[in-house]
Amino acid sequence: MDRTDRNRQPGRSTPWSRRGVLKAVGGLVTTPIGIGATAYGLDRSYRDADGDGIPDSLEADAAFEEWLTGIFGADQFSGLDPTRRDLLVDVRYVGETEVRERTKARLAELFRANGIHLQWLDYPDRYDRAAFERRYGYNAREILWSPRSFYHRTIERRLKNVAFQLIVVPGFGEGPHHEYLYSPWTKFEGGSGYVSGFNTGNRAVVAGNHSHETEAKLICHEIAHLVLCHSTDPANTGVMGSQERLDLQPDEWATLRDGLGAIRDTTGVDVAFQRCLWAGLPPAELDLSDRLAAAVDCAGCRVD
């Protein structure tokens, strides 16, 4: 799980304790250990020749494609192909939020030029702003990962397993945190807690009204967090580094292409399988199994 400070490069992390980690996650980190670890292993038993996380059986299922077309429309969903790496981005809008058509087209072109067939899928229904604020506020935990979060209550189960969910919210109204959202995790890391984007692996939330360039970089950054961690390499000028360019480094593109299987919602608390969450904490301190200890290792991607 990672943070993006508004209109700036990702913030720096500070050391944390095991108790603090568990508190920030809300106790849910215990779920994937044991039963969740078994589910994680079993979920890898399906056949996925193109490595995009969508089982070949679904990519060849006409009824499933018809279901997706019925939701998003043929003008957005162009079908699945078992010979290419597909990345479906299921976008949910709260209130009058929007993402520019130019941004959508630019991101689709960028990803496709780098071997990932990104399909931008605007969900047809908008969510009432007042109702959303009453139930979830602009708290990333309540939007993305608590047991009663927007993600768990609202997203169709079949979509959780094949698409990256991007939730676009207005953010707080007038005041010192205007157009930000709040993340208890980043507050724990030593920051203010107020950010404009937050990712928990296969889902993310972004807030605020930005310029086209900033909007594109922010969304690209959060999607890339599906697999990638922040980069501290001064030579990395892409969205995971200094954010000077709307791009990833060649090795980052390769890692993202090879890691699209992370799209699957394997346990319902996929935060436990986001490597960057544990970058500063030795896996041994969490009493993880060998399988999970390997899964959370983040050598080379740590934020000092």
Structure description:
The protein has 304 residues and is of the alpha/beta class. It has a single domain, classed as Collagenase (Catalytic Domain) (3-Layer(aba) Sandwich), CATH 3.40.390. 34% of the residues lie in helices and 12% in strands. The protein has 13 helices and 8 strands. Strand 2, helix 5 and strand 3 form a beta-alpha-beta unit. Helix 5 packs across helix 11.
Rounded to the nearest angstrom, the distance between the terminal CA atoms is: 16 Å
Instruction: Please give the CATH architecture.
Output: 3-Layer(aba) Sandwich
Computed Rg:
18 Å
| Total helical elements | 13
Q: Report the average pLDDT across residues.
A: 78
Q: Looking at this structure, what is the CATH superfamily? A: Collagenase (Catalytic Domain)
Query: Helix and strand string, N-terminal first?
Result: EHHHHEHEHHHHEEHEEEHHH
The biggest sheet amounts to:
6 strands, mixed
Q: Could you list the spans in which at least 5 consecutive residues all have pLDDT below 50?
A: 1-42, 267-271, 279-304
Tell me, briefly, the overall form. Answer: globular
How many domains is the backbone divided into?
Answer: 1
What attributes characterize this protein structure?
304 residues; alpha/beta; Collagenase (Catalytic Domain); six-stranded mixed beta sheet; 13 helices; globular; disordered N terminus
Quick summary:
With 304 residues, the chain is of the alpha/beta class. The protein has 13 helices and 8 strands. The two termini are 16 Å apart.
